[in-house]
Amino acid sequence: MSSVCLLLATKNGAEFIESFLLSVINQDYLVTEVLVSDDSSVDCTLEIVQRVLAGKIKFRILAGPNLGTTQNFYHMLVESREYDHYAFADQDDVW
């Protein structure tokens, strides 16, 4: 099976993030790893990520570059391991 890394950019997304993460977990095709880059959230976004994903899927949380969405995704590509495929997501997506 191919490996898939989900690149998730976050910033103050507590209102949306749990719905998105649950939609990822409930997919038929499993993501290999979720890589979260957070641009200095001041809400409980990261706590929700940890609570929802712990024990269900491999994940890592990175401190974002604080330079906006484009640089946040680029940062994750640089920091990610080698995968067959990459999926890009925003915190308010639902799959």
Would you kindly provide a written description of the structure presented here, covering whatever features stand out?
The protein is 34% helix and 26% strand. It contains three helices and four strands. It has a four-stranded parallel sheet with strand order 3-2-1-4, with helices on both faces. Helix 1 packs parallel to helix 2. The mean pLDDT is 93.
**Helix coverage percent of residues?**
25-40%
Q: What is the subunit organization of this protein?
A: single chain
The count of DSSP E runs of length 2 or more, i.e. the number of strands, is 4
Shape assignment: globular
Strand order of the largest sheet: 3-2-1-4
Largest sheet: 4 strands, parallel
What fraction strand?
A: 25-35%
**Number of contiguous helices:** 3
Provide the structure class. Answer: alpha/beta
Report the average pLDDT across residues.
93
The topology string of helices and strands comes to: EHEHEHE
Q: Could you list some keywords that capture this structure?
A:
95 residues; alpha/beta; 4-stranded parallel beta sheet; globular
